[in-house]
Design a protein that fits this description.
single chain, 212 residues, alpha/beta, Rossmann fold, seven-stranded mixed β-sheet, four-stranded mixed β-sheet, globular
């Protein structure tokens, strides 16, 4: 994460706003939040991290820096306000439980669309498989988002939804650049013969959506 966020600066974006509004879905321990604050010190940030143990580290990291205008929520982004089983992976892969996942705990969910009632200068969705469900729920509000990053996850035992994600983003007026996460390109060198599956996923893609 440090390499991608601070060295490569994958989330760097331009804005003319003095206090850009940033939503960080899947904040983990807060590296992305800290990066956004270094990039735009006056930014207003809303961040979500549902894993209790990781959320406590996120809170501590933000408090130590003394940054203002950051709201942290220990909830998972979803298409409704409910409670769902959650698999706590212990690192950066915790997620809403899939069919074969252990159900480690239960988390409260919240709708992203509740936070899209104003212009969003940057929206980050790294929510380990919940991205399609969330984007479908708030598709009609995405025209108010200027820059959007989605990490798409494909589960090997479920139908792929990359076409749905691309269609939603295209309909919202975004232009897309799609890459594979660093190091993932060599995991399935002969995909017609054998496909690498990790934590139940056979594909991850980084989708950068922006206004042309």
């Amino acid at each position: 994460m440090y390499r991608d966020i601070f060295e490569q600066q994958s989330y760097r974006f331009r804005t003319n706003e003095q206090k850009p509004y940033i939503i960080d879905g899947g904040a983990n321990v807060g590296l992305s939040v800290l990066y956004f604050k270094e990039l735009y010190p006056r930014s207003q940030i809303v961040a979500f991290e549902p894993d209790d143990d990781i959320f406590s580290v996120l809170e501590r990291n933000i408090e130590r820096r003394g940054y203002e205008n950051i709201n942290l929520f220990g909830q998972a982004l979803w298409s409704s306000e409910t409670k769902l089983s959650f698999m706590s992976e212990g690192s950066y892969g915790g997620r809403i439980s899939q069919a074969d996942d252990p159900r480690d705990t239960v988390v409260q969910t919240v709708r992203l669309r509740n936070y899209l009632n104003r212009q969003v200068d940057f929206l980050k969705l790294d929510i380990e498989g919940a991205e399609t469900e969330v984007l479908i729920d708030c598709a009609d509000l995405l025209d108010g988002v200027e820059n959007l990053f989605v990490e798409y996850h494909s589960f090997s035992k479920k139908p792929q939804t990359i076409h749905t994600v691309i269609s939603i983003l295209a309909d919202a007026g975004f232009r897309l650049l799609i890459t594979q996460p660093y190091g993932s390109y060599d995991l399935s060198p002969q995909p017609f013969m054998e496909r690498y599956v990790h934590e139940g996923m056979d594909l991850q893609l980084n989708i950068f959506a922006f206004r042309s």
